[in-house]
Amino acid sequence: MEVIISTTPDEAGRLAADAISGLVRRRPEAVLGVATGSSPLIIYNELGRRVAQGSLSLANARAFLLDEYVGLPADHPQRYRNVIRGEFVDKVDIDPAQVFGPDGLAADLASACEAYERAIADAGGIDLQILGIGTDGHIAFNEPGSSLASRTRIKTLTSQTRSDNARFFGGNVEVVPQHCLTQGIGTILQARHILLVASGRGKAEAVHQLAEGPVSAMWPATALQLHPHVTVLLDTAAASRLQLASYYIGTYQGKPSWQGF
Ligand code: F6R
Known about the structure:
Number of strands: 10
Helix content: 25-40%
CATH class: Alpha Beta
Distance between the termini: 11 Å
CATH architecture: 3-Layer(aba) Sandwich
Number of helices: 8
Strand order of the largest sheet: 1-10-9-6-2-3-5
Shape: globular
Bound molecules: fructose -6-phosphate
Structural class: alpha/beta
Strand content: 15-25%
Largest sheet: 7 strands, parallel
Order of helices and strands: EHEHEEHEHEEHEHEHEH
Oligomer: single chain
Number of domains: 1
């Protein structure tokens, strides 16, 4: 796991966009895994800037969402398919028909989850997965206690996650859905490269556990320690609980230029 502590959000967004640009140059039809929430916005904005400038094209890329609320009406602004359209798809040149998410409105949710797993596999798997992290250590919506081998399925959100996300629902926790469909931890671990981005002191404990805690379902993000290619991009506040912060900083400063991401 490579931990990079950036001093500005712009720098973190640039580094993530560099990794994605490099991938798409090598493989224009790359499969991206996209997260919603606040954390990846710095990445999507930077990708949008590069596409507008003409230095990047995602025209042949495909994208899969991590998760979706169950039961939000098709036109609800917080339905993740709508969120990702506004925050990512509309900013770049990806074909909207090539952006997929689990169907939180399916009559048969279990079959929808199986179909989603098949769609990811049929696309050849995810080349680069963008992740945020919850204050309780969730990745996607794999809440504490999730199986580290889990696949896409229905989950119940914790009250902490619902209250963290109330800011997207006018501050009213009561209207934050209780259920979601989410890629499992086992699904996420199959992505070839995982890029997790976190900022702010509220994430510091979860980030400490992610990088330095024992692997445990109580902190689902710790499962990423089992993956061979994870890049963690942090601001100084999110990095403030790391025991090895100065080691990570020195390692990155001395990183050979040929090494890349
Ligand atoms: C969103 C997702 C969640 C968020 C996490 C952090 O698709 O899967 O795991 O990444 O809740 O959210 P923010 O970035 O809003 O703090």
